[in-house]
Amino acid sequence: MTRRHPGRHGATRTFLIPALLALATLTGLIAGLLGDGVRDTVAALGLAAPLVAIGLGRCLSWRRRDH
Fold first, then answer.
1. Is 42 in contact with 27 (CB distance < 8 Å)?
2. Fewest beta carbons less than 10 Å away: which of 49, 59, 62, 67?
């Protein structure tokens, strides 16, 4: 039986957010190539997801420094 350490994370937890961002980006790229209308909106949202994640990470890191 393997004991887990409280400070360690599994591979699933480590790669969950990057995998979701990759999926959103891939969905956005495919939607942008396939058509117009609603697909353009899906493409814009999918391609903006990594930028939103970067901005959110920056805001959270600035908040931690202030407190």
1. yes
2. 67
